[in-house]
From TrEMBL:
Pfam families: YdjC (PF04794). InterPro entries: Glyco_hydro/deAcase_b/a-brl, YdjC-like. One of its GO terms (biological process) is carbohydrate metabolic process. It comes from the Bacteria. The lineage of its organism: Bacteria, Pseudomonadati, Pseudomonadota, Gammaproteobacteria, Vibrionales. This is Cellobiose phosphotransferase system YdjC-like protein. Keywords: Carbohydrate metabolism, Hydrolase, Magnesium, Metal-binding, Transferase. One of its GO terms (molecular function) is deacetylase activity. Its cofactor is Mg(2+).
Length: 180
């Protein structure tokens, strides 16, 4: 945290070199426990805006994930390497289904490429679907109507039919955990 008690912004955080990994573990486990205490059922660990994949946090984040033992989003999408991570992860993570890339045709092309590259692999696609644009959403994000567009694509009969025809299965982190 900075001098005012706020989390560092992404640029500052990415370039920090003096963050104690043990403090990251403590914070991660505290947030995890707070979510459990609030009644959430958690099936994986990730970090908002990939903070856990940043060089300054990666060691502590990895240790925390290993201690918690849940599947995790890949942590090699910002800084290469995740050899220390013992938890199950998807085989790939792709940020291409976003903004201009959030179209049915682009999604089909991405999934087709992954199917050829790793026929039995698991890919996590970054997406931000929403069923509607609310005032609350507008207050926290500039990416609003696109979320509804993503939701419409991801829940469309056209995509469902195409996935079945191409023998591509949608799964969640619970499935990754049970396959490990």
């Amino acid at each position: 945290m900075d001098a005012s008690g706020s989390f560092y912004d992404r640029t500052t955080l990415f370039n920090k070199s003096d963050i104690c990994p043990k403090e990251v573990v403590i914070e991660l486990k505290a947030q995890y426990q707070a979510a459990l205490d609030a009644g959430f059922e958690i099936n994986h660990i990730d970090s908002h805006h990939f903070a856990g994949a940043f060089r300054a946090l990666k060691v502590g984040f990895t240790e925390g994930i290993n201690e918690i033992g849940l599947p995790a989003r890949r942590i090699d999408n910002v800084v290469l390497g995740q050899e220390m991570l013992r938890s199950a992860t998807p085989d790939a993570f792709d940020m291409g289904f976003y903004a201009e890339g959030a179209t049915l045709e682009h999604l089909k092309a991405m999934l087709t490429a992954y199917k050829h590259k790793m026929p039995t692999g698991v890919v996590e696609l970054m997406c931000h679907p929403a069923t509607e644009v609310t005032e609350e959403l507008r207050a926290v994000s500039g990416y609003t109507q696109q979320r509804v567009d993503e939701w419409e694509i991801l829940t469309s009969k056209a995509l469902k039919s195409w996935l079945e025809m191409n023998q591509i299965q949608c799964i969640g982190f619970n499935d990754i955990a049970s396959n490990d």
